[in-house]
Write a structure and sequence with these properties.
The complex is a heterodimer of chains A (about 300) and B (about 350).
Chain A: H1 27-36, H2 39-56, H3 58-61, H4 93-129, H5 131-145, H6 149-160, H7 164-174, H8 176-190, H9 194-201, H10 206-242, H11 254-262, H12 270-297
Helix pairs in contact in A: 1-12, 2-4, 2-12, 4-5, 4-7, 4-8, 4-10, 4-12, 5-8, 6-7, 7-10, 8-10, 9-10, 10-11, 10-12, 11-12
Chain B: E1 5-17, E2 24-37, E3 42-46, H1 53-60, E4 68-73, E5 76-77, H2 83-89, E6 93-96, H3 110-120, H4 126-139, H5 156-168, E7 174-178, H6 186-203, E8 206-211, H7 214-220, E9 223-228, E10 231-237, H8 238-243, H9 248-255, H10 262-267, H11 298-302, E11 308-309, E12 316-317
Parallel strand pairs in B: 3-8, 3-9, 6-7, 7-8
Antiparallel strand pairs in B: 1-2, 1-4, 4-5, 9-10, 10-12, 11-12
Helix pairs in contact in B: 3-4, 3-5, 4-5, 5-6
Classes of the chains: A mainly alpha (about 300), B alpha/beta (about 350).
């Protein structure tokens, strides 16, 4: 520190004052550049996009409706008119897998959104205010965490009764406890950041601190959590449907199809292979994609 | 005239859990600090790390709630106010943080960051605020076009300028600068200090300048307070402190400031203090500095020396060994002069 009053310099002259507007490398572009380097994550992303398209356009892409019976071609092997064969009721498996993607995605995405919507306010309040309210929320969370996710979801689905809506609610609520805990932990860290103090010093209200400073900095964590939760929910939906707690017949779900395949294992193994492969590939794709997202976004893995 | 800031007997004790079980210990981070800053005055607060100077700053901002004591801002005791009541008064005081990296929200543009106090205090409409932010950027030596940039695109010095723009946006009567330059490169430290001083003279705000760098404090401060282990041990105006330090700790601190002349530097007597600052969990009896004081006497362990006038009310120091006429205790150099090369 060499400050000499006689050698006052114009403030700023020691630092470059260049600012080229528009040239600012946006955060998003940087994130995408880093993500692109990860080849496995790109493969995952491609599969995810395909699955989402399949789910969105199932009625257009499917050659038949999911409920059309071809009684002359019951348990037809793959190939020919029926790409993936037919099931024991003569329904086209390819069409049913496509429609199953629809159910799967709907349940998985909606359940994840539901979990976020419920967990975010609770996690924010617990982490930001701490104290008694934190204790109450976290003890409830601890109690719920004593049940494994799938047991909790099965119990909820059984109580609510079988339907796609109820499966979604069961899966969503089932993942709330762990999500609250993650959000609370993150908020505990963020509230100690200097910029939160800076906002408080600027006269910000609690609502403003939370909405403008804490939630935006929580987004990466939430996004990473979402990519982890979606494959879990795909499997969760398949499990509940397999157990008969999910979508009701005749709507196809991968889990329902697996259940039906069980009785025809020797006469029509393709009934098992295709929905099973769909579940595998979908969850794998989401997991690979999620890992890539975490690598570029999660502040804990690198900074 | 009421002082801009008047802190009386400020105490902040932190409870910490120590060891196993439920036993708690008390960290006496700030232990009875009193300060006064008049209008347009710059008070430098110096001390080693861990002496509690940042805690004092944060208590004044009520980013930390003090354990006891009062903080009067332009005459109003802010410690008794509710958070909501104090929010309106936050116009009067703002802060520049030590770390220019963590003190700016990475998700906001620099313009939004500097505009925040204006928005929260509902000053001006959108267009007027935007204009004001542009002026502020000019004032702190940033190109107004930088408003659209995100903090991660800026250098440390530029970020600190954004922090300064935010702090001065609502023209507070008091600016608290909590080690504003210690995280910066040496080459930009000078420019930030110069800027701060220039703005201070221009806008006339009072300033609490917290630092451990004596050279910077000497440069900006009208008066200086020296902190040790949560207490102020000496306070006076800048000239007197540097010319006639009384407290042995102050003498040691001053002797550590390098002088530009290498010949003189080599021949200076330096006082090296043994050991480290004691833990604020278990401070020593009597004078808190006695464990490291080169001239401590038995009486120093018995009673705590109080801040007393040594030269009228303009110079206060807390030491038993100060003579009856206020003469400073003599300390022999504890370092041999370096042999000539």
């Amino acid at each position: 520190m060499a400050v000499d009053p006689s050698a006052r310099v114009d403030p700023g002259s020691l630092e470059p004052r260049v600012a080229v507007p528009g040239k600012g490398r946006s955060r998003r572009a940087q994130v995408w550049r880093r993500f692109r380097r990860n080849k496995t994550a790109l493969v995952g992303l491609t599969c995810v996009v395909l699955f989402v398209l399949a789910a969105l356009f199932a009625p257009v892409l499917a050659p038949f409706t999911y409920n059309q019976n071809f009684f002359e071609a019951v348990l037809a092997p793959p190939g020919g008119e029926h790409l993936m064969g037919t099931d024991d009721l003569g329904r086209d498996i390819y069409s049913r897998v496509l429609h199953g993607a629809r159910v799967s995605m709907q349940a998985a995405v909606m359940a994840t959104v539901l979990a976020m919507v419920v967990s975010l306010p609770l996690g924010l309040v617990a982490g930001y205010y701490r104290g008694a309210i934190d204790s109450v929320i976290m003890r409830l969370v601890d109690a719920l965490l004593a049940f494994p996710f799938i047991i909790l979801a099965i119990a909820l689905a059984a109580i609510l009764g079988p339907s796609l809506m109820n499966v979604t609610i069961a899966l969503g609520v089932g993942s709330v406890p762990s999500l609250i805990r993650i959000i609370r932990g993150e908020v505990l860290g963020l509230r100690e950041e200097d910029y939160v103090d800076g906002a408080i010093a600027s006269g910000a209200t609690d609502v403003s601190v939370l909405s403008r400073h804490i939630v935006p900095n929580l987004m990466n964590t939430l996004l990473v959590q979402a990519t982890v939760m979606i494959p879990g929910n795909i499997i969760g939906e398949a499990t509940l449907s397999y157990l008969g707690l999910g979508v009701q017949l005749p709507r196809p779900s991968w889990g329902v199809m697996l259940n039906a395949a069980q009785q025809n294992l020797s006469s029509g193994p393709w009934m098992l292979v295709f929905p099973g492969a769909a579940i595998c590939i979908a969850t794998l794709a989401f997991n690979l994609f999620g890992d890539g997202v975490r690598d570029v976004l999660d502040p804990k893995t690198h900074r | 005239m009421t002082p801009v800031l008047e802190v009386t007997d400020l105490v902040k004790h932190f409870r910490v859990r120590s060891g196993l079980g439920d036993s708690t210990a008390v960290v006496r981070a700030v232990d009875g600090v009193s300060l006064r800053i008049d209008r347009g005055e710059v008070l430098g607060l110096v001390g080693e790390s861990g002496s509690g100077k940042s805690t004092v700053a944060k208590c004044i901002m009520r980013l930390i709630e003090p354990t006891s004591g009062t903080v009067r801002l332009n005459g109003t005791d802010i410690t008794g106010l509710s958070r909501r009541q104090f929010r309106a008064l936050r116009r009067e005081v703002h802060m520049v943080f030590q770390d220019p990296y963590s003190s700016l929200n990475p998700r906001m543009t620099c313009g939004q960051i500097a505009e925040e106090p204006l928005r929260h205090h509902r000053i001006g409409r959108r267009v007027a605020r935007s204009e004001r932010v542009g002026d502020l950027f000019e004032k702190v030596g940033l190109n107004p076009q930088m408003r659209a940039r995100y903090p991660h695109e800026l250098s440390g010095g530029q970020r600190q300028r954004v922090g300064l723009a935010r702090a001065l946006a609502v023209e507070p009567s008091l600016l608290i600068a909590d080690e504003p330059i210690s995280a910066l490169d040496v080459s930009v430290q000078a420019s930030i200090v110069n800027l701060l001083l220039e703005l201070q003279q221009d806008m006339g705000f009072s300033c609490l300048f917290v630092a451990h760098d004596l050279a910077a404090v000497e440069f900006v401060s009208d008066r200086i307070a020296v902190m040790y282990l949560g207490k102020i041990v000496e306070t006076t105006d800048r000239q007197r402190l540097f010319a006639e330090p009384r407290m042995p700790y102050t003498q040691a601190l001053l002797s550590a400031v390098p002088v530009p002349d290498p010949v003189e530097q080599r021949q200076r007597e330096r006082i090296l203090l043994p050991g480290e600052m004691p833990s604020p969990i278990n401070p020593p009896s009597g004078c808190s500095f006695r464990t490291r004081c080169p001239i401590a006497e038995p009486q120093c362990a018995e009673a705590e020396p109080l801040l007393a006038e040594v030269d009228g009310d303009a110079h206060l120091a807390a030491c038993h060994l100060i003579g009856p006429a206020g003469e400073a205790p003599k300390i022999r150099s504890t370092v041999e002069r370096a042999p000539p090369p």
